[in-house]
Amino acid sequence: MIRLWEHPLSPYAQKNKIALLEKGVSFESVPPEGLGSGTGPEGFLAANPRGEVPVLVDGDTTLFDSTVILEYIEDRWPEPPLLPTDPAERARVRTLEDVLDTHYEAITWGLGEIFAFGRATGELAERMVARAGEQLAAHHAWLEPQLAGADWLNGASFGWGDVCAAPFLNGAARFGLGPAAGSRLAAWLERVNERPSVAAAREAALAAADSGEVGLDVVRELIEKGAFQREYRDHRLEWMIKTGGLQIVEDGLAKRNIRFVEFQA
Ligand SMILES: N[C@@H](CCC(=O)N[C@@H](CS)C(=O)NCC(=O)O)C(=O)O
User: What is the C-alpha separation between 179 and 188, in angstroms, rounded?
Assistant: First the structure.
């Protein structure tokens, strides 16, 4: 059985889940215990020395990084194809994936740091959220023309571009910062969310976000104590700094509730 180490709230893991569902591949979905703390269960850290989800295990093949996994899924189970056939279109949707994986995700992740983890409050939070709204709107403006004359971000039919965009735009929409009402992108988001594969990933994410296992006060207390060690890697760190959160980074490093990737091979 194919195993996907994942977490329902991870947009990266959602990309891979949606692709597997689209191709009718059965898999077991396993959330690694301790994700977010810099540790992980046996087998997980060995499979991914970066300690991140998603990780795919297919027999003797163990892969990490959602982009690499998506390429593997497309090669290993070619039907139905997710990539367009035209070389320029293939390059376009790969660019779309890269932009959403890097700078777009950093914005929605930063909003999570503020809303769910209470990293900023009051006037600082207001300023950072307003800036995040502008940054997301700029990305939406870049995506909008890619839907000119097409129902899907992949072009004429659903595929790679949609698989890679839906989890991230749903993440922004959860914070009330999705595509502007009346835009092509907003209509696309409604359309793509009707797709059973996307709906399954979205519902699992909403259920995890609303599970309410731990209240905000408790999370903030745990953050203060350093019980969480959130990963502030690359674009996320850049986002914090450019959006006014440099002090958040300094405080988190001092309290040891912020960490960077330690490759653990
Ligand atoms: N570039 C990686 C990013 C994966 C990633 O950042 N995963 C996050 C969840 S969204 C993670 O597992 N973080 C580990 C942690 O916070 O402990 C990919 O595309 O798979």
Answer: 9
- The pLDDT assigned to 228 comes to 82
The class level of CATH for 2-76 reads alpha beta
Asked if 88 and 35 count as a contact pair (C-beta separation under 8 A), the reply is no
Q: Residue 213: which pLDDT band, with cuts at 50, 70 and 90?
A: low
pLDDT band at 203; cut points 50, 70, 90: very high
Q: What angle do CA 106, 108, 110 make, to 5 degrees?
A: 65
Task: Assess contact for 249 and 240: CB atoms under 8 A.
Answer: yes
Tell me the domain boundaries of the chain. Answer: 2-76, 87-209
Which residue has its alpha carbon closest to ligand 1 atom 14?
52
CATH placement of domain 87-209: 1.20.1050.10
Q: pLDDT tens digits, residue range 111-154?
A: 999 998 899 999 999 999 999 999 999 999 999 999 999 999 99
Q: Look at phi and psi of residue 228 and say left if phi exceeds 0, alpha if psi is from -120 to 50, else beta.
A: beta
CB 172 within 8 A of CB 115: no
Of 231, 165, 155, 220, the closest CA to residue 193 belongs to 165
Residues with a CB atom less than 6 Å from ligand 1 = 10, 12, 35-36, 51-54, 65-67, 101, 231
Does position 215 have pLDDT exceeding 80, yes or no?
no
Can you tell me whether residue 67 is helix, strand or coil? helix
pTM summary value = 0.96
Q: Report which protein residue has its CA nearest ligand 1's atom 20.
A: 65
| Minimum-distance ligand 1 atom for the alpha carbon of 64 | 20
